[in-house]
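Recall the central idea of this unit: under ordinary conditions, the amino acid sequence of a chain determines the structure it adopts. In this exercise we apply that idea directly, starting from the sequence alone.
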Amino acid sequence: MMKKIVYLIAAVSMMASSMAIAAFPNYYPKEGLHLVGNLDDIQLKRQVIVINDIAYSLANNVIVHSPSSFSVPTSELRIGGKVGYKMATGGQLITEIWLLPSDYKSPLPGR
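Accordingly, the structure predicted from this sequence is:
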C-alpha cells in the first residue's frame, strides 16, 4: 500500500512539472532550466547583473526571452524577478536569459 502511495505521488509530481513546462513557448528549454535565480541587481551600462547575490557579466549579444516573445530588450529585466539563464562555457558570462513567473519551480532535481 505504501509503495502505491509513493508511486502515485511521484507520478502526480512529474505530471505537474511537465504541465508547467508545457505552459512555456517552444523556445524555452523543454527539460527545464538548469540555472534559476532571483535578479538582485541590474547594471546594464556595465553589462553586469546579480543573481542570487552573485555578479555575472552579460554577453554583448545576450538574448532575453519572455513568455510572450522570443527576444525582448534587456530593459525588460526587473530587480526581484525570477530568471533562468545559460552561461558560456567556463565562466561568469551569461549568454541567454529566460524571464520566469515568480512561482516557477524547476522540474530538475535540486534546482
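The radius of gyration is 16 Å.
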